[in-house]
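Summary for the steering committee. The consortium agreed at its last meeting that each partner would contribute one worked example illustrating the joint modelling workflow. Our contribution is presented below. We chose a case with several input lines so that the handling of multiple components could be demonstrated. No manual editing was applied between input and output; the record is shown as generated.
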Amino acid sequence: MTDLLTMLDEAGLTGRGGAAFSTATKVRAAREHRAELIVNVCDGEVGAAKDGWIVEHHLHELIEGAGLVAGDGTRRAVRYAAHRGSRTASLLAAAGLGVLEVPHRYVSSEETAVISAAHGGLARPMTKRAPFVFGGRDSQGRRIAPTVVLNAETVWRVSQVARFGPRWFRSFGTTDEPGPRLVAVGGHVPRPGVYEAAAGVALSDLLSLAGGLPPDARHVGVGGLGGVVLTASAALSTIWDTPGMKRHGGALGPGIVTVWDPYACPIDVAGELIAYGAGESAGQCGPCMFGLPALSQAWGELGRRPGVPAQERLQQRLSLLERRGACHHPDGVARFAASALGTLAAEFAAHADHRCQKERRPHAQFA
Amino acid sequence: MSGQAFWFLSRATGVVSVVLLTVVVCLGMVTAGRRRPHGESATVVMGVHRWLSLGMLVFLAVHIVTAIVDGYVPIGWLAVVLPFSSPYQTLLVGLGTVAVDLLVVLMVTSYLRHRIPERRWRIIHWTSYAMWLAALAHGFAMGTSDQPGLRLTTIACGTVGGLFVAWRLVASHADRERRQEINAQEWT
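What follows is the complete predicted structure of the assembly.
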């Protein structure tokens, strides 16, 4: 029991769902409060695929990891949260595991939304006054039993740390961000899929795993809707670790790299993602239920009529979303929009001249 | 002070209380039903709603104390808190007591609002409509029965309040509409 916690501490495993919180600390708290364990297998972020990949290829190790985390003192059997009707959900059910089906929505795979659904509530985020591993109350004052949610990859890595030891684990990645990590590389690449990587590799090497960055590629998204967008040239010179991604306002996140279709207008692509994010609001906090649709509208206006007034309006909307909303959904969408606004400056300038990358290809012809 | 003075004082403060209460209730409806909460005006409305309700307590306290101290009719101190315990006009004095009790609940829960789940506070605060109606009925039927001026004041209060209630029911509310729209989506 304590052996596992020591090993996790030594290995330096952190949550692979994106928050990068110490797994040892979380598991220790879960043990102390005999918290129910829910494994998050939702692949909730846009472009995510690794949770499903683990279920498909390493299910028995996932179950083993869940058993190790849960120990034998939990209140009830481990459950696996997956999107309703997904292939992952049916694979889990076929394996005889307890499946917690949540609606196929962006915010429903958020930690507290999963906990709410697990306690018979709606799959919407709850205010986290204290971590729910200690137990707590929902917004209506109903009691929520101690519950811990771990990402599927985190649980899988726990079983690997237990089997191969912390030293093996630390032979991957960097000193600050050790261990192997799964990355879903998708979009405009020759071989989209889920690949084994680690922090500290060049983004270009990550892309090589999927067949390399095509020469006509122009933009690369890292981290999905909660992440950032880079130009292809910036992506090729970026190291995939926290310091490298921080330079672009991003983070390692849940392991997603998406090459954008170079034949679609990138302003539209970003706009669609922002509109999707606005539509996924759970309608609980003002900045989210009103701020995100307003942001989406401001983005659309800037794309149609670029100029100082539209730009200022968008900037104003963005500044109003910073650090707002109980589950930080607006924060994530705003971060993405701010990143896209900077990265797509050339495209907005082209739109102002009534040109667009989509109309003629490649865009460089106009230069 | 002679008994006559108590009687006048009790009537006057009672009517003022009803008027102030109506203003407080209307401001509350404006706060709850406003379409767009504009910064300063919303703060002013909220502030007046709160402070006027406290100011009204002074008039209400004088109204109650003078009515009992007057002694011309038997009411009794118990009737301040226990509804329908007054020997005189059991039903009508009781309505006033009901309003006072509800008022105490509303004030205590609002004072402790930061310690109560928002939804629970809101449900409790809805009883302010019942409290207002009880106070209006009490005032209309008792204090102003032989004074057309005072009776008209009560009627005016009821009319104005009724118009605000109608506005509150009809007014569209961006927050409520967006919440309903999102609640109708799949969340389970």
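Chain B touches chain A through 15 residues (CB under 8 Å). The radius of gyration of chain B is 19 Å.
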